[in-house]
Amino acid sequence: MSHSWSRPLRTAVGAAAAFVSLAVLAACGGAAQAPAEGTKAHPVTVTFWAWTKGSQQVADEFNATHDTIKVKFEEIPSGGLGGYPKIANAIKAGIAPDVLSIEYPSLAQFVSQGSLKDLSSYMTPAVKKEFLPQTIQLTTMGGRNWAVPSDASPQIFYYRKDFFTRHHIALPKTWAQFRTAAQQVKKAAPGTRIATFFPDDPTFFQTMAWGAGASWFTTKNGAWQVDTTDAATRKTAAYWQGLIDAGLVSTAPSYSPEWTASLKAGTTVGYLGASWGAGTLAGIVPEEKGKWAAMQMPSWDAAHPSVGMSQGSTFAVSKNSTKTAAAMKFILWMSTSPDSVRARLSASTSTALPAAPALVPVARKAIDTSFYGGQDLYGLYEKAGATIDPDWLWGPTAAANNTLRDQLHGVVGGSTTLPRAITITQSATVAALRGSGLKVEDAS
Amino acid sequence: MTTPLIVDPADQRAPGTGRAGRGGRATVPAGRPGGNRWLSRGAVNGLLAIAAAYTLFPLVWLVTAATKDAGNILGGNVFSFEGFDLGHNLSTLASYDGGIYFRWYGNSLIYAGLGALGCSLVSVAAGYAFDKYRFRGKEKLFAVVLLGVLLPSTALSLPLYLLAVKTHTVNTYWSVLIPVLVNPFGVYLSRIFSAGYIPDEALEAARIDGAGEMRVFWSIGLRMVMPGFVTVFLFQFTAIWNNFFLPLVMLSDKNLYPLSLGLYNWHSNANATPDFYPMVVSGSLLAVLPLIVAFITLQRHWKAGLTAGSVK
Amino acid sequence: MSTDTGTDTTSTTGGPGAPTAARGAAGPRRPARRGPQRTGLAAGLLLTPFFALFTVAMLIPVGYAIWLSLFTQKLSGLGFEGPRNVFDGLGNYVDTLGDSAFRHGFWVLGGYVLFYIPIMVGGALALALLLDTAIARARRFFQLALFLPHAIPGLIAALIWVYLYTPGLSPVVSAMHSGGIGLDFFSANGALPSVVNIALWEWLGYNVVIFYASLQAVDRSLLEAAAVDGAGNWRLAFGIKLPLIRASVFLVLLFTIIGSLQLFTEPLLLSNTGSSITSAWTPNMYAYSEAFQLNDYGRAAAASVLIALIAAVLSFGVTRIANRKGARA
């Protein structure tokens, strides 16, 4: 924002610019509004909002290597903690930046509010081929591309290798084995649990259902199909309800002081996370260096491992943007250039798995895995990435997550159960979608 | 939740004119020590001590926790002298993100200082007018002011936000500053103070000397009602310093954050990055110090303010 | 600043800017306190800043909220084209009142008030009466010690208590745990007491100081006479002092109720820590989540208007009762 302009002048200029861009739009029949690139003297400036550590460095690196497009980065609070409301409000107010960072679970909400630009014309087959196919699928709705994947985040199980070895507990490949291992852990050291069922984060359970083959949302014939109680989800619900009832998992909130304290005390010896979680974990308990290891998340069928994706982020262009072409240049550079990965990792220890497989070696080289005894994390991540179930789509309303979150409080509190929670989620989600005017088919 | 007390204006009485307004105590009736076996001296003071322990304990925790590193805070052994890390905590606080903590501190001082100053001036002027002048519909108008006291401020935040978006003031200093300039309770309080502290004779004398009404207010009324001014100022200062909802809604540029919002952000980050815990804790400690100091040194004023509102 | 604004802002209530001539007609209700100068102008000037701000920061937002509450946003198909703003009459009110989450918020609030008010008012009264007995020591220290939490911003108070509630982090929880008490402050049953405790901690001392000040203002000769008659501290406290400070008690009650309706910061912080507090636990949280999580401004505005309305009705009720009792006293 310029402070040198007086407000009326700025408004006038803004109105004029809008008028001109409208005229241009009308003239060329809805093509890109501003040129993809400016000149050295007058570069196109793209604004960019994100909260991921290292984003500033990425923008700096882009600016250092490009002179016809410049990026202006602003850090915002992370999505769930105020970032998304901020984006939604800015879009409503018409003041949103060009490029937005949005996590997969929230993408459809922005799409269904008409907040994002359709990027299909930029996502040519050649471009799509650069990404892990599942991540392209997750950003495609109604046959159109709405975002560019940044990272893929297959589920990963992190565990205290020293503990498992000392107590001769076999590493669980399936969920049945996981339950056995959970019992052994509890027996080996009273008060100790194999892992945590995060009750505050509904996407934890959803990702588990996803890995089991669930598919809550799909678009068909111009309508949203909702089914939060399909067979895979019911199986997942019954399984986790069993673990919670038997007290085999802890139910501390995700990344809460309680959870952190239990990791430090060694009373939680596993973490059901995702690729990016390795860096987080190492940052939380640096003193347990060398004691942890990572493995593929257990699955229902050992012969056909399948996982979901926990969070993970994409880049999208807001509907307020008048510089889609320039924005897309920047976004594709961020998602596919080695320079971008190096710049991000210069300021961050995140072990995110780039959605573009060609970048994995860059990340592998930059990340120190001594916390995991030098394990080849990225080799594991690539393998896990290939097992991501492609049939999942996140829903177009926050109501599904909000309802499930509120229900999960009751689940760990003992006042309701997971099977009941998913039924309530179904009806609340359908009601919310219908209430907002969307076309919905209730599949349950 | 910083709504102070009001009474029906008919009940108004001058603060500080009775014993109530003073910190010290006048003669205490000699209760008969022999007559209260059920409530011995020890029991009375013991109960008070327990209550004080309850109120002071979390503060003691805050002070000791501020001296600990993340490991020791999370380990729960806050009361030991192990892992004494205060200096390091403070230097992290000062250096993190280019010293943004002190920028927040400055913002809070700006919001609270300017906001409280403006609010007290505006309130005292209005309170003075309500007290010293007669005009048609005065009491009805005053009732409207009192109704404003009853409005939950959080209910106003959403429309204020949307209005700020419309006027392009969202995410600016103004968006937080302007709404806190209004406190109907300040007007109410000022009216009472004006009645208590400004004798009509003083104004009359000035008028006879030929002073205009504005001059009378500015050089006599305002001077005489200074204790009330300070009370309103303190009230509003605390209210703004405490304010969380409005900045949460209005501000997205972290350079504009007040302390409460900045600390909230850090607290949210602390989940994934425990290094933030010591920063949140020591940051909180520094944030409450000025208020504690203000309340200890200005005891007489806030007590007068509370008393003014409640004593019948 | 012109006086026009003065008349303008107050015209709705036939206000202070009314011309001087009209004032004479109103007639003096009290003995004249000032000379008959052109004081209408002065009053207008002095009131203008406040009422200008009052209009901008309170009246217009209230009006705007009511306006907003009449509209709703409708999507269509898969929603890709964005929402349309549609006039919905009282639809948002019907939906809000019909939403069990919103109503549940009031049940929670009801439970909170039932829990909180007796403890708060009773506790503050008891402490004030203790302080007011002849045998209490170090009154200044106790007043200050009890009052100090009020100087702590609500958010920081909530932060401190969240840490003190967290297992593994809190010395209180571990002390109780080793004492065999497995109290979970975040559980479904623990949530309400946890929030009550935070509010109690913040406001107890504040109310003690108010009650104590009122007690100090009680006519000492009354108490001396009673003491001479042989009344003990107990009789003095409950038979004589308490009825005399009834007005203060009602006012504290009133503001505690209004404050309760605004309950937001403390439960919001607790809900983030994964306690059993849901996103719409209190009516205010409901409005916040509708506006900023679900982007339903119409519904949020309707909820805000309803909250304000209920607050006004409740305050009015309490004030009426208080005044009636006061008149009888």
Which terms would index this structure?
B: 312 residues; mainly alpha; 0% strand; disordered N terminus; C: 329 residues; MetI-like fold; 2 domains; two-stranded antiparallel sheet; globular
Structural class of chain A: alpha+beta
Fill in the CATH topology of the largest domain in chain A.
Answer: D-Maltodextrin-Binding Protein, domain 2
Q: Specify the number of helices of chain A.
A: 18
Instruction: Characterize the quaternary organization of these chains.
Output: heterotrimer
Shape of chain A: globular
Low-confidence stretches of chain C: 1-37
Number of strands of chain A: 15
What summary fits the major beta sheet of chain C? 2 strands, antiparallel
Average pLDDT rating of chain C:
77
Kindly describe this structure:
The complex is a heterotrimer of chains A (444), B (312) and C (329). Chain A is an alpha+beta fold and 444 residues long. Chain A has helices at residues 7-28, 55-65, 83-93, 104-112, 125-128, 133-138, 161-166, 175-188, 202-211, 231-245, 257-265, 277-284, 324-336, 338-345, 360-366, 377-386, 398-413, 418-435; strands spanning 44-50, 69-75, 99-103, 140-141, 144-145, 148-149, 151-152, 155-160, 217-220, 223-226, 270-274, 292-296, 313-317, 353-354, 440-442. The model of chain A is unreliable at 1-32 (pLDDT under 50). Chain B is mostly helical and 312 residues long. Chain B has a single domain, classed as MetI-like (MetI-like fold). Chain B is built from 15 helices and no strands. In chain C, 70% of the residues lie in helices and 2% in strands. Chain C has a two-stranded antiparallel sheet with strand order 1-2. Mean pLDDT of chain C is 77; it is low at 1-37.
Brief overview:
The complex is a heterotrimer of chains A (444), B (312) and C (329). By secondary structure, chain A is an alpha+beta fold. Helix content of chain A is 44%, strand content 14%.
Describe the protein's topology.
The complex is a heterotrimer of chains A (444), B (312) and C (329).
Chain A: H1 7-28, E1 44-50, H2 55-65, E2 69-75, H3 83-93, E3 99-103, H4 104-112, H5 125-128, H6 133-138, E4 140-141, E5 144-145, E6 148-149, E7 151-152, E8 155-160, H7 161-166, H8 175-188, H9 202-211, E9 217-220, E10 223-226, H10 231-245, H11 257-265, E11 270-274, H12 277-284, E12 292-296, E13 313-317, H13 324-336, H14 338-345, E14 353-354, H15 360-366, H16 377-386, H17 398-413, H18 418-435, E15 440-442
Parallel strand pairs in A: 1-2, 1-3, 10-15
Antiparallel strand pairs in A: 3-13, 4-5, 6-13, 7-14, 8-11, 8-12, 9-10
Helix pairs in contact in A: 2-14, 9-10, 13-14, 15-16, 17-18
Chain B: H1 41-65, H2 70-75, H3 86-95, H4 100-132, H5 138-150, H6 153-166, H7 173-177, H8 184-197, H9 200-208, H10 213-224, H11 226-242, H12 245-250, H13 259-270, H14 276-297, H15 299-310
Helix pairs in contact in B: 3-14, 4-8, 4-11, 5-8, 8-11, 9-10, 11-15, 13-14
Chain C: H1 3-10, H2 20-26, H3 39-68, E1 71-74, E2 84-87, H4 91-98, H5 100-132, H6 139-147, H7 154-165, H8 171-178, H9 191-217, H10 220-228, H11 233-244, H12 246-261, H13 265-272, H14 283-292, H15 297-328
Antiparallel strand pairs in C: 1-2
Helix pairs in contact in C: 1-3, 3-15, 4-15, 5-9, 5-12, 5-14, 6-9, 7-13, 10-11, 12-15, 14-15
